[in-house]
Amino acid sequence: MKAEIPLTTRIAVGSLLIGVLVLALKGLAAWWTGSIALYSDALESVVNIATALAALVAVRLAARPADATLPYGYHKAEYFSAVIIGVFIGVAALLIFREAYLGYFHPRPIELTPAAIAVSIFATVINAVWAGYLVRAGRKARSPALVADGRHLFTDVFSTGAVLLGVLLVAVTGWARLDAVLAALVGCTILWSGWLLVRQSVIGLMDVAVDPGQLARIRELIAANAEGAIEAHDIRTRQAGKATFIDFHLVVPGTMSVAEAHVICDGIEHKLREAVPDSQITIHVEPENKAKHSGIVVL
């Protein structure tokens, strides 16, 4: 029986196909008008294709099960993908700055047509709809690569809107250099979005803890499901892609048997996995003389 393709992989393939379609539409609009700003906007779509490819590779790697080489899984592959996306965005921004510089000192008139504007608007609508879907689906699947791809597309939507308004101003005022200024502004927007993506991904690679709200929920679940134990301390969490790692020390009475302590651990793990999908839990059981009288006191 043929294995079903994971949803995240199908979404990543969809991003790649949509990126190609949007690039074709924006490239057509730039060719019709001769606008540097629209050309820069189309160049950003090349980045979208590159990011979609990176996201596709990342989600396929992240879906692989843990093995002897990587016993904790491939989840962090998605963070590397987001870093690569940020680098591509930076390269695109530099290319746009070059075109803006040349266009400012050697301006050329643009030929604005209703068809070119309509094509550019249509491409932007496609990006907006797909970006919203990517962010929602990425959060649901806990996929940093898909969320990063969606957020980048949102910056593309806003920059395209600004470019279209600016190009209309160029046509009305006849100031050709404004086209180059708009292109430079698009480059700045792209560069900023790349920095945010790289920053967020580096934090993920450094084993960032879960947010305070989720940590409070984890502590509540441990306290509510550790009946028979004395306390839990040294609780640590870290995130790697969609996986969440939780480890802590559980203090039990010295007279408690290993089997009894194991039953308590099983109960805690079951409740934590219900509340935190894709969690990997490690519990270190200690006798009562190891109690620190801090952390979570089991009632």
TrEMBL record:
Protein name, UniProt field: Protein p34
Compartment(s) where it occurs, according to its Swiss-Prot or TrEMBL record: Cell membrane
State the source organism's domain of life.
Bacteria
Q: What's the family?
A: Belongs to the cation diffusion facilitator (CDF) transporter (TC 2.A.4) family.
Per the UniProt entry, what is one GO biological process? intracellular zinc ion homeostasis
GO MF terms here are: cadmium ion transmembrane transporter activity; ferrous iron transmembrane transporter activity; zinc efflux antiporter activity
- Indicate the segments forming the Cation efflux protein transmembrane domain, all copies: 15-206
In what way does this protein cross or attach to the membrane? Multi-pass membrane protein
Annotated membrane-spanning segments are 12-33, 45-63, 79-97, 117-135, 156-175, 181-198
Q: Name all Cation efflux protein cytoplasmic domain ranges.
A: 214-288
One Gene Ontology cellular component term attached to this UniProt record is: plasma membrane
Source organism (scientific name): Arsenicitalea aurantiaca
What are the protein's UniProt keywords?
Answer: Cell membrane, Membrane, Transmembrane, Transmembrane helix, Transport
